[in-house]
Predict the structure.
Amino acid sequence: MTKGKTVDFNEVSVESKLKLLYELQSIDSKIDGIITLRGELPLEVKDLEDEAVDLEVRMANNEAEAHEMESMVAKKKNDIEESKTLIKKYKEQQNSVRNNREFDSLSKEVEFQTLEIELSEKRIKEFTFQAKEKKRLAEETAQLLADKKIALEAKRQELCEITNETQKEEDELRAESDACKEKVEPRLLQAYERTRSNANNGLAVVMVNRDACGGCFNKIPPQRQVDIKLSKKIIVCEYCGRILVSPELAAQEA
């Protein structure tokens, strides 16, 4: 059919319509086979990519927290030096006090700063331990990330090889599918695509096999089988809604 030419689908026989639909199904099933060949690889690649991103975020968070703990250690060390300076100052002032009240007041300040030093030293130990722990976690995460990236690259390479091997064939089949769809009556094409999208195996047009639907395998009444064999009207399975064709018509298309 010339592209752009108007077709009167009423002039096309039902048998011809069924042949076109079966041909379209055959082409689309080959495309499905190529996609199945790739298997779960695209999903595996996506999962590995997501995991790698999560590990990168986790590693960055651990490194940031370790840096924060180190900053807290440095701050506490400065606090200790400030407290030591104050203690020295208060002790010098004690040598020139005029009464016991002033001496006691300075003694309390010395005691307070001494406690501040002890508290800061305790915090330094805690922050130092936490910083080491965060660094350890960051290093472990970095190793996990490196392993994950190796696995990701291997999966990407595997997917790329399979895709390269089948891409040309897939492109050709998709072109054939598009060309075939142009010849199919719009309402039939819509029904075909709707049924195909709802079917787990992508089959919208199936052959009668051993007196049963080739899609859901439910038995077909004898009279209905006769109608299917005559190919005078579009008949769908009353159980699954797939379009049914006779083995004879399928053999002609094959």
Q: What stands out?
A: The chain has two domains: 9-37+185-253, 41-165. The longest strand covers residues 205-209. The radius of gyration is 39 Å. The domain at 9-37+185-253 is CATH 1.10.287.1490 (Helix Hairpins).
